[in-house]
Amino acid sequence: MKIHELIKNNSENITNIIIIISIFLFLLSYFKPSLILSETITSGGDTASHYYPAKYLKEYLIPNGKIIGWCPGNYAGFPIFQFYFPLPFLLMVFLSYVTSLQVAFKLVTILGIFLLPICTFLSMKFMKFKFPMPIFAAIFTLPFLFHQGNSMWGGNIPSTLAGEFSYSISLALTVLFFGLLYKGIKENKHILINSILIFLITLTHVYTLLFSFAASIFFLFDKRKFAQNFTYLFKIYFLGFLLTAFWSIPLVFKLPFTTTYNYIWHINSLKTVFPDILLPFLALAILGFVFSFKKRDKRIEFLSFSIFTTFILYSIASKIGVVDIRFVPFIQFIPMLLGACGLWYLIKNFKGKWLIVIIIFLLTIFWVNDHVTYIPTWIKWNYEGFENKPLWDTFSGVNRFLMGDTSDPRVVYEHSELHNSAGTVRAFESLPLFSGRSTLEGLYMQSTISSPFVFYIQSEISKQISCPLPGYKCSSFNLTNGLKHLKMFNVRYIIARSDKLKDELRKNPNVDLVKKIKSYEIWEIKNISGKYVELLNYEPILIKTKDWKKLSYEWFKKDNDVHLVFVDKITNNDKKLFNTIKEENEIDLKSLPEIKINNNCSVKSKLENEEVIINTTCIGRPLMIKVSYYPNWKVEGAKKIYLVSPSFMLIFPEQENVRIYYGKTSSDYLGIVLTAFGILIFIYLIIFKNFTLNQKLKRLLKR
After folding, report:
1. Interatomic CA distance for residues 212 and 618, integer angstroms
2. Which tens digits make up the pLDDT trace of 427-447?
3. Which residues contact 268 (CB under 8 A, 6 or more apart)?
4. Is the pLDDT of residue 501 over 90?
5. pLDDT tens for residues 642-662?
6. Same domain, yes or no, for 500 and 584?
7. In this structure, are 397 and 518 located in the same domain?
8. Cα Rg for the chain, rounded, in angstroms?
9. Are 567 and 542 contacting, i.e. CB atoms less than 8 angstroms apart?
């Protein structure tokens, strides 16, 4: 290599290193180490409610050899990490063995923010863009990260602070995947590393996986290399799928036991999508597109095509049961890469490019700083933790009074914006963390069939309701009905915050005030058994239906005492157990037959995290378990677990001692087998590849 080329390369490398370090220092000026390394429990938005799952993973699931399991803390129980993304939480747990879980949690929640610039730089390098395009792309991640146009869509800092840190990590990995995919396709290499990236992307966020898959279709438009490109894509996605099968296969098979959240977001103006901070970079993106169109640059065509696929995904989102707005961040981010291309084309013939890079970096951080308003305050709010909030003494006092465990009756809290002084509006979702007691409302509302009923109850007892699920209309304030529903869910205590609820509770003879802690009152519901397993008062009705979600919700709203049991086909054993069997179109919810059940028997039970132990003399009679139904629940001492309204389990015991436990289904076993197969293929390819390389090396040495 000639001396001037060596000097040029060294100056470029030094510039790249200086700018990358400067980007990290700029980010650290906002995410101050004193906050991130303090051992407090992160608060703020949805982020606060993610800490309890991380702790549950570390203290219960992993010691029991699990990643996916049952969590009783919210929604009458739900399958934790089956319908949310386990990889960031696993990383938190692994980090917590060298630091505290509080610090590990904080580090992982900001990981995607720090990964995005370096992953973007590497991606553009893999695409063989020349200096200074890759470092421009890294710099241009800053306006995207710091834009304040939204705080819920994903990718930017406000969304990350609101709780979308899994999305942020997955976005960074997706950008890296784009570069390695392009390089791998062109060179017909890197199958293993791209398969690993697909594995990592899948287990951090499904929206980025859908985006990656859709963008990959670009390479199938090359008619000359269609077969080669198709084979390459098939290999990496198939191996990636096998590696994730332990998680993805059960997820697909068990989707019927989730609650759909296909919310359609209404964007009021273009400025919401492209706020002022992004506009100069959008102008450069147009230049980049025009220049590349003239030169037929396949790299820019690939990036441009990915924007097109995002519009398609956005338009069909509600039809495939996902949230449309989660695809918009790609529409915001990819133009930043095109903008870096535009600037690169403008200055490619200039000398002293390293100086231009420094100038662009300084201009960008000044521009970003000038447009940032609330982000520093939000960062401080989140990472100073619950312990430094104005309401901490009151909040911790409520939790101390309610101290217990999962076997105790549940606690419900009134939804209110006033909880925000404790750290987040969702502060009391963390009752299982701070008090040990289970509550109803929680973060992962799509993960269970119980969430529509939980939010309906919330609307009956709260002055301010949220009712977030499309397709499920909530109630208005109705404490009488609310108390009946709370008893059904084995709730003993109500945490009241608003004057409206407090006044109504004082008028109601079915509750007692047991504790007042400043602005909060804790009320106990009278005449509650406190049992998670109870004999039904009336004979249940067996309904053959495939639309049990709708029917159960209508039953719940009509305040019936006769429970419905749902099956998709009726067996001979069902006919022996149920006296009343109906087709869906035969049922009249207004006049269900009330046939009393002889209750001269006893039921004792103990609820654990993943087990219900029952001792009963009610042989052959219907026992309702007030825990969310899910296919993984198995029973010893009864033939079958039925799904009973609203969303619970029902058994007919055949012996005095009955055990219900959380086990595995056929889809779980299939997923585990496929993942094991994928690991074997992966190991084989590594060994075979190394063997081939060693053979080539030996042949070269012999020559």
Report:
1. 55
2. 999 999 999 999 999 999 999
3. none
4. yes
5. 999 999 999 999 999 999 999
6. no
7. yes
8. 28
9. yes
CA dist., res. 459 & res. 462, Å (int): 5
Whether 511 and 400 map to the same domain: the answer is yes
Flag whether 305 is in a domain. no
In angstroms, the CA 551 to CA 589 distance is: 9
Instruction: Note the pLDDT tens digit of each residue in 68-117.
Output: 999 999 999 999 999 999 999 999 999 999 999 999 999 999 999 999 99
Average pLDDT of the residues in 487-494: 98
- Quick one: pLDDT at residue 240? 97
Residue 563: give the domain boundaries.
Answer: 533-662
* Whether residue 512 is found in the same domain as residue 597: no
Start-to-end CA span in the chain (Å): 27
Assigned domain for 2 exists: no
In a domain, 697, yes or no: no
Clarify whether residues 519 and 567 are in a common domain. Answer: no
Q: How many CB atoms lie within 10 A of CB 103?
A: 19
Is the pTM higher than 0.85? yes
Tell me the three state secondary structure of residue 606: strand
Which of 86, 108, 130 terminates a domain? The answer is: 108
- In angstroms, the CA 353 to CA 357 distance is 6
Q: Provide mean pLDDT across the span 514-527.
A: 97
Q: Which positions ≥6 away from 191 have C-beta within 8 Å? A: 184, 232, 235, 236, 239, 685
User: Phi, psi at residue 649, to the nearest 5°?
Assistant: -110, 150
Query: Which candidate, 287, 303, 278, places its Cα nearest to that of 123?
Result: 303
- Between CA 457 and CA 602 the distance in angstroms is 29
